[in-house]
Amino acid sequence: MAKKYFQERLEKFSGLKLKLKINDNRSTMMSVKWEPDKSAKVSLHWFFLDAPENIMQALACYLRQEDRIISPAVRAFIEENVKKLDYSHQVDKQKLLYQGNVYNLKKIYNDINHEYFDGKLQLHITWFGRPNQKNRSRVTFGLYHDPMRLIKINRLLDSPSFPDYLVSYVIYHEMLHHVCPSYVDEKGLHRVHSKEFKAEEVRFRHYDLAQEWIKEHHAGLFAFV
User: Fold this and answer.
1) Which of 2, 55, 124, 150 sits CB 3.0–4.6 Å from 51 for a disulfide?
2) According to the model, what pLDDT value does residue 133 have?
3) Buried (b) or exposed (e) across 76-106, using 16+ Cβ within 10 A?
4) What is the CATH number of the domain that holds 177?
5) Is 116 found in the same domain as 75?
6) Which of 148, 150, 149, 161 lies closest to 222 in space, CA to CA?
7) 193 and 158: one domain?
8) Neighbouring-strand partners of residue 30
């Protein structure tokens, strides 16, 4: 019933006949394909069913192709709702890899959680990639998948070549993404690191050491997401 009512409203606002699909996708919240008969195939995450009228109007403008890009308002609406999604129950804990040859991610995570977050964070963590990555112009140390509440740390760091304070810093950085989420600014640009994020990041006890290590070892090669 909610889908039918939503589709009727969106068709009224846009003036288009829509082939609407409501999804429960973890990554693609919105996709549109315009058809030759002036209809459109639209796939939207279920949280759009509760979209206020201003978002419906902005979405209708995009569907009519009056706006060439998705409006800042719609981008902000998506970003805010993605923060509320929790697919962590879908993580297969048996596939999570904690113990490396040098570092145990779970132990480091637990220590950081206790010291900086009062043990309140309930996130998953695992290794990803291969220990040896050759001929790479840029290496991603860590990733955070918000809906899955999942931190992924590059296996490259599981080596004595990378000091323990650096590995801890990378994990702390990724944990902060949960505490200080990304946002869409007034221009519709996606900002990953807010002022709050940056202020919290320098609280890490070995922040300066980690930054010095990264600078010394070619900062342009390394990335955090």
Assistant:
1) 55
2) 62
3) bbbbebbeebeebeebeeeeeeeebeebebe
4) 3.30.2010.10
5) no
6) 161
7) yes
8) 44
Residue-wise pLDDT for 157-174, tens only, equals 999 999 999 999 999 999
For residue 223, is pLDDT > 70?
Answer: no
How many residues make up the chain in this entry?
225
The rounded distance, in Å, linking the Cα atoms of 158 and 156 is: 5
Per-residue pLDDT tens digits for 58-90: 999 999 998 888 898 999 899 889 888 888 889
Whether residue 109 sits in one domain with residue 75? no
Phi and psi, residue 42, nearest 5°: -125, 130
Residue where a domain terminates, one of 55, 82, 109: 82
Three-state DSSP class for 60? Answer: helix
* Residues contacting residue 26 through CB under 8 Å, at least 6 positions apart: 85, 87, 90, 147, 148
Distance of CA 29 to the CA centre of its chain: 12
Residues 60 and 151 in one domain: no
Global confidence as pTM: 0.77
Domains of the chain: total: 2
Can you say whether residue 93 is alpha, beta or left, with left for phi > 0 and alpha for psi between -120 and 50 degrees? alpha
User: Which domain range does residue 145 map to?
Assistant: 88-224
Q: Do 39 and 113 belong to one domain?
A: no
